[in-house]
Amino acid sequence: MAGDKDNFRRFTIDSIKNIFFALALLIIFVDASPVYAASLADRLSGRFLIQIEHYGESWWVHPRTRLRYYLGRPQDAFNLMRAQGIGISNKDIEKIPLIGSTAPVDRALVDRLKGNIVLQVESRGEAWYINPVDGMRFYLGRPADALAHMRNLGLGIKDSDLNQIRRGDIAIVARESSWKIGEVYQIEWVNAPKIFAIDIERVNDGSLFFITGGMEARLPQIGVYQWTIPQTFLPGKYRLILLAPQEGQSGMGGIAVSDIINVVRP
After folding, report:
1. DSSP run (H or E) holding 16
2. Residues with Cβ < 8 Å from 94, sequence gap 6 or more?
3. pLDDT at 247
4. Model confidence at 82: pLDDT above 90
5. For labelling alongside 253, which of 38, 76, 200, 231 has CA 20 to 30 A away?
6. Coil vs helix vs strand at 222
7. Domains of the chain by residue range
8. What does the alpha-carbon distance between residue 266 and residue 263 come to, in Å, rounded to a whole number?
């Protein structure tokens, strides 16, 4: 009888140990992905990223929020500079080195601003990028020049890694990467302005097709839209574009694009 009690006690203790071991493993595996995602965003904060598996799309990881922002076109780069730039005085900008410069450097200032875009508020609002790799500043100039610099300084990244860094900008998303002509698909967006529209662009020739024409004032800023692909659509690669009024310009301009969608016949 005593032997049975000892065996039961050992069985109970071993069972409890196994339960705690299983729970520990579960906690490790459940928490592993968020920890990795956070460390990846931390490691890449302030960097420009090039999506090497997806048409070389460009992104910037905000050095403070660790969110990524899309840099698809020169206007996207310009909007980013104005929206996310930090003001800096003429005196302080001179303390951040240019390539080949021998001027005195304020290392504390450089370390504080690494990865940021700064704007010369005492001048004409010139935009500079402080490279987090070496602390050098790069003049961003016109929108097209800025985008070229951003891509030249970019670090290649795989889709699986990029997807672990959350987006901070306006986004438009198609949940399926392949669409069939004549079928219905869901389009989603977040952080849209009060007035906007959605178009779809054929990648190879830039042809635009309206999806939400005439509904600009009735769409919610976070929403979903069901769209049936017309039978007249040609197969090919497309992407969704979220359009909004541009300050000082007539008409609308693109402010966000989706990933590439492959449209095929059923």
Report:
1. helix 2-43
2. 103
3. 65
4. no
5. 231
6. coil
7. 48-162, 171-264
8. 10
| Distance, CA of 106 to CA of 162 (rounded, Å) | 33
Mean pLDDT value of segment 221-248: 87
SS3 80: helix
At residue 99, does pLDDT exceed 90? no
SS3 245: strand
Question: Does pTM top 0.85 for this prediction?
Answer: no
Phi then psi for residue 17, to 5 deg, are -60, -45
Sequence length of the chain is: 266
Q: Which CATH class is domain 171-264?
A: mainly beta
- The token duo for 46 is 């302030």
Residues 6+ apart with CB under 8 A from 220: none
Scanning 85-237, the segments in alpha helix (DSSP H) are: 90-93, 107-113, 143-152, 159-162
Contacts of 113 (CB under 8 A, 6+ apart): 86, 88, 96, 130
Cβ pair 54, 159 in contact under 8 A: yes
